[in-house]
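Hi R.,

Here's the chain you asked about this morning:
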Amino acid sequence: MHANKILTILKELGTSDNYKKIFINGAWGIGKSYYANNYIEENQDNIIYITLFGKTTFESIETDIAKQMINKLSLFKKHKKKLKDFSKKITGSLSYNGISINTPENQKKSVISQYSSLLESKPLIIIIDDLERKSENVPIEDIMGMVEELSQYDKTKIIIIGDENNITSEVKEKWGRFKEKIIEKEYIISEFSEEAIDNIINLKVKEYIDENEIKDFVDNFIKKHKVKNLRTIIKGIKLFREIYDNFLDIKNNKEINLIVLESCMAIVIETTENLYKPSEKDKTKDQVQYDIDKDLITRIRHHYFAPIYINSKEAFLLKYIYNIYNSDYNDSTKSDVNIAINSYLMIEPEEKNLFYLSEENIKDKVKKLFYKMDKNAYNYVTLDFFVDDYNEISKWNDILDIGFSYESLLNVFCSILFVNHYDISNSLYENKIDSFTLKGDDNKTLNKLVDDYNNKCEDKYYNDKFDEIENHFKTKNYNVKVLEWLDYSLLDINKKDLVKTFHERCLNNNFFIPDLSDEIDNDEWHWTHFVWKLYYEKMPDECKNEMNNYIETKKSNKISDYRLNALQRYRPLVKNKNK
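And here is the predicted structure, written out as C-alpha cells:
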C-alpha cells in the first residue's frame, strides 16, 4: 500500500463505524507521520495526537492526552455549561482559563465521554505514534490496556502508528499477542509516495529557488537516486537552511542556492543511505570503480553530479558543506565558502562540457585554459575546482597530443598552487594534495603531477619553515611556536634529510641559542630550552657532540655558565664518561 493511502484510511475511520482500533505499520521515513499530520491539520478539533518518543513513564502518556483535551476546549465555547461540568470532574495541577485540572484517572470514563459529547457528530480520534520508539520503562501491556479501555468509550477511536520491524525483540512477542487480541485492522504501508517529496521540497525551498528548478531538481536529482526516506529529505533541507542562514553572504542568488541544496542533499543522502558505497564484491567486479567509490566525497561527486570523465563544477562546495555537516569547521569557514562562491560567479559559463565537443573545439578550449593559467589570468576557486580543470588539461593533452610538455604542465601546476593553495601557517599535510582524491582516475599524468607537486611542496615547506626560524632568531623574536613543528617532524625515520638540514641551519646560526651571558626574559629562556630539547631527544649523537662543543665556547661568564650547566644537568647532550 502506498503511504498516501493513509489519508483515505483516516477519512474512512472518521466517517465509518467499522473499526475502532487500527494499526498503521510501515518502515521509518516512509511517510506515515507525514500523512497523519496532513490529516490532523484539516481535522484539528476532534483529533488528539501523541508520540511515545520521549515519554519515559506511562503517566506522562496519560497526562499528554489530558493536556490536549483541555487545550482543545477553547473550540467549544458555545457549550459553556458542559465545559464547567467537564472541568469540575477533574482536579489537580493543569489549568485552563484559571480552572485547575489534572489527568483524568479515577473519572476517566466520565471525562472522555463528556469530551466526546462536545464533538457532537464527530468521533474522538486518538493517534498514538512512534510505537517502536517507546521507552523501555513503559510496558507495552500498559499501552495496549489503555488502547482497549479508551476504545470502550462512546465515539472514541484509536490509531497506533509504528514500524513493527523495529520493535525490540524483548517487546515483540508481547506486542504480537496484544495486537492479535486488540487491533481490529492492520494497514501495512510498503510503498513510498513520491508526492510527499514534491510537497515537502516545494514548501520548504520555494522562497530560495525558482519553481521550475525545484521541479527539475526533484525529478532529476531526488527521484533519480530513489530516496525512500522522508526523514533523509527533511535532514537535507535542514542542512541547506543551516548553510543559508549561517554561511552565505549572498542571499538572493538562486543559482547558488540550488548548488548548495544539491550538495546538502547529496551529502545527507549518501551518508545516511549509502546508496553507492562499494562492497568487497564490487572490488572484484570493477577495481577502478571500487577505488573511485571508496572515498565518500569522490563517490558523491561522481554519482550525484557527473561521471568521472566529466568535470562537474557545480560540486565545488562539497568539501565545505561536508565539514559543516560534521561540525568540523572554524572561524574561517564562512569566509572560505563565500570566496569560493564569488570566484565561481566570475567564471564564464560553458555551453557544453569538453567531453561532448569536437576535437578542434576541445583543443581550442584546453589551450585557452592553460594559457590563462600560464599568464596568471586564471580564476582560482578551490583546490578541487583547480584539480578538475587540470585534469581536463592534462587528460586531453595526452589524448589529442596538444603539445604541452610535462615540464611546462608541472611548472604551471606548481605556480598556481604555490600562490593560491600553499600557506606556511598550515601543516605540511594541508599544503599537499591528498592522493586519495585521484585514486581510480586513469589520468596518469595528473597523478604524476600531484606526486611531483607534493615533493616540491615538502621541500619548499621545510625551507620556508627554516627561513622563518632564522628570521625570528636574528630579529630576537623568540616565539617558540615557530619551532614546535620540528618536535614531531624530526621523529620521522624517513626524514633523514630534514635532520641534516636542521643541523646545517643550526651550525650557521649559533645553534639558535641566544646570548645567555646577560639579562634574558622568559621567552628567550623558553626558546633555548626548546632547541636544547630537540637536540637531546631527536638528533643523532654526532650532532649532539657538535652542539655540546659549541656550548662550551659560550660559557663566557658565571651567569651563562650556570644557565648552560643547568640545561646540561637536566638533559645531558654528552654522557659523563666517568659514570
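One quick note: Confidence is low (pLDDT under 50) at residues 89-107.

Cheers,
M.
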